[in-house]
Amino acid sequence: MVGGWQWGCYDCAHGREVMSNQQTNDEAARTHFGFETVSGSEKRNRVMGVFSSVAGKYDLMNDLMSGGMHRLWKRRMFSAAAVRPDARVLDVAAGSGDIAIGLLGKMDAIGAADGRVVLTDLNGPMLAEGARRVVDHGLLPGRADCIQSDGTKLAFADNSFDVVSIAFGIRNFVDIEAGLAEFRRVLKPGGQFICLEFSRPALPLLDVIYDAYSFNMIPMLGEWVTGDRASYQYLVESIRRFPDQQRFARLIEWAGFDLVRYENMTGGVVALHRGYKIA
Q1: Phi, psi at 230, each rounded to 5°
Q2: What are the Cα distances from residue 166, in Å, to 11, 105, 108?
Q3: Cα(122)–Cα(131) distance, rounded to whole angstroms?
Q4: Which of 79, 158, 151, 159 is nearest to 122 (CA)?
Q5: What are the DSSP calls for 96-158, one per residue?
Q6: pLDDT-derived band of residue 39, with 50, 70 and 90 as boundaries?
Q7: What is the C-alpha to C-alpha distance for residues 257 and 10, in angstroms, rounded to an integer?
């Protein structure tokens, strides 16, 4: 409960059972945690540990690491989101709630305050941060609901949302393809998938500068601010392991989305991907 407000938690009652049922398959499947090769279940547990560790200073670290640029990237995401005044939006890996708050703000700006956003995250401490933020912004249950759920096994019916958004979260999924399939499943026909994620620098020499900054400064900042260097070392490595712009766009297409496209920001350090569920 946050500020007297209880958020929904579809996985809280059976989340351990779900993870237990997945354990056998996950142990057999190998994936990556940064530059390490691990089982799917080990990656899930370690990613949960990373975000539980950094939840309290997540927004501060985003400002420090990006020099505030993440706010501009997210504003571009808001402007590209195909929301109507009465839209139903699902924000996956919702973190501290800034995407949900921004999308609700856009809906309010273009019409009546009938829009709804559901914030979902598998990580309880991160979802608690999101709940605190939406309460602080005066958003009551019914406008912004927090539901704990695995992005690869979403606890929502088919054809439930007009927009599914995710920002800087999909690279942490054990199974990216399964997540994309779930996003399409819960979208209504005509709905939009929109994703903001780190990508590959496209300008000459930018990749060299970016690598030098990322591998040297970001873990150091993490240690200074949060006392957790390892989590931010994982962050840098997870960005390098994530598919580049073209490969990720193909994954979105293979999941069944149409009209897939992306745009680079800050020279390709970040890319904004979009796709639509036509039918």
Answers
A1: -60, -40
A2: 19, 17, 20
A3: 14
A4: 151
A5: TSHHHHHHHHHHHHTS-S--EEEEEES-HHHHHHHHHHHHHTTPPTTTEEEEE-BTTB-SS-T
A6: low
A7: 27
**Cα(204)–Cα(278) distance, rounded to whole angstroms?**
37
Which sequence spans correspond to the domains of the chain? Answer: 55-202+235-276
| Antiparallel, parallel or unpaired: β 88-92 and 116-121 | parallel
What gap in Å lies between CA 198 and CA 237, rounded to an integer? 11
276's enclosing H/E stretch is strand 270-276
Query: Which class for 3: exposed (0-12), middle (13-18), buried (19 or more C-beta within 10 A)?
Result: exposed
Find residue 148's DSSP bridge partners.
Answer: 121
The partner residues of 263 in beta bridges, in order of sequence, read 272
> Quick one: pLDDT band at residue 71, thresholds 50, 70, 90?
very high
pLDDT for res 236: 84
CA pair distance 255, 206, nearest whole angstrom: 31
DSSP summary character for residue 7:
P
Per-residue pLDDT band for 25 (boundaries 50, 70, 90) equals very low
Tell me which architecture the domain covering 55-202+235-276 has in CATH. Answer: 3-Layer(aba) Sandwich (3.40)
Query: Which tokens belong to 26?
Result: 């996950």
Which structure tokens are listed for 81? 């989101």
